[in-house]
Each structure stands twice: as C-alpha cells, then as structure tokens.
Amino acid sequence: MRRNQMQRIEAAMKERAAQKMRRNQKRRIEREEMKYDEMKCDEEKRDKVQICCRDLSLGYGTRVIAEGLSFTVREGDYLCIAGENGAGKTTLMKVLLGLERPMRGTVEFGCGVTRKDIGYLPQQRETRTDFPASVWEVVLSGCLARSGWRPFYCAAEKQLAQENMEKMGVSGLARESYRKLSGGQQQRVLLARALCAARKLLLLDEPISGLDPKASVELYRMTRQLNREGITIIMISHDLNSSLDDAGQVLYLGREPFFGAKETFCSSRIGRQLLRKEGE
Asked: Is the full-model pTM beyond 0.85?
C-alpha cells in the first residue's frame, strides 16, 4: 500500500513537471511570436516614417530657443505644431525645409521623401502680396522644383497647376493680378502653388492669420480634404480649438514640450490649460 502511494506521488510529480514544461514552452513560443510581431510592426512603422527629428536644438546665434525636440511624422499624418510666441515654431519649419540649420540634432527623411516633395505655405506677413504677376503665373511657379534646369514648364506641370487651381477654387481668377485679390483669395492661390510642389507633404505656417472667419473655415476644410487624399499635413496654428478638430498628433513647444496623440495632449495639464484659456 505504501509502495502504491509512493508511485502515485511520483506520477503526480512527473505530471506537474510535464505541465510546467509545456507551460514554459508555450510562453516561450508566445514571447517569440510577440517579439516577431513587434519587429514586424516597427519595420512597417519605419517604412512609413517621412520625417524623423532627433534631439533638435533651435536658436539664433548662440541663443537657444528650443532644445531636446524628438518626433516623427508618418505618411498621412496631420500634425499640429503649437506653442508660445518665440518658442521656435517657424524656425523648426524652416529647419525642416532646409532653409536653416539646427544648432544640434538631426533631421532625416524616409519613405522616399526629399525636400523637393514638400509644399510650403508661409505666414502672410512673410509673403509679398504686391508683385505684378497673374494668378496663373504664381501657381505655376510652384512647379519650379519639378522643372529642374529646364527653362520652361512642360505640359504635365501646366496641367498640374490647372488641376490645383480648380481644387482650390481659383481657376476663374487665372488672368487676374495676384496683388488685387482679397486675403482669402491670395491664400487659396498660394495653397494651390504649394500643392504644385507638395508631392507628399504640405507645411503651413499659421495659414489663417489675417483671414476672416469664413475664409478660415474654408481653409481648414481644404486642408482636411487634402489630408484625406493622402497628403501629410504639418500646420503651425494658434487656433488650437479649430486645428485640433482635424489633427491626429500635436507637437507643443514651450516650457513643457509635448509630442504625441491629440487625445493625450488634450488630457494633459498643459493641453487642458491652453484649451481652457482659448475658450474663455
């Protein structure tokens, strides 16, 4: 009887050991599968990264206005850049365009993107509005980066300019003088021009500055539609409440820098504080 008990105990111990071994083996397989999935996911994300900024420091001369900026922009993103006055928002945009160099850090492009693929709509105060050119000439000049050393525009570039004018609703103004247009019309023309260069990305620096409410709503509608069509949008805006309606990510420059999903920003201390201030 004692011998039978010992045999049963030994059998039970062997079964427990076997079960433990099977559980460990299953966990190893699950960990390996998870690791493979994570590697695959990271690889897919890397494939879709259009801009990767690492540890950027921005400034003028020896004066640092922003530092430690690290963020990524992926294909199809809508990134809203916000921040305090003088925090370096426009400087950052110029660094992305290659117009200025960062004091430190790197800007890398991926997914086949080069700076020639980026369209740019600068602030109105940085744009001359008095030059004697027609709307058609202004929009077509956005194809300069595409034409390279050619001293003329090809038929495909002229067709692209025409399509973008129609998309922005300014094709009927083609022969009009640019300087005679209203502020909202000029922004539409400049956006059509930027689209001629924007094969993959569009950068907008406070695009609604100086526009009336109706023109502002229309510009937001147009950028929303462009994003839905696959253009990556990076927009500097002081109008957080409106710009966050469409943005998926937020980059905030200031004393408490932030980069992440819109929802996370809105629930953060700085996000709640800014949105509450705007609503007052």
From this structure: no
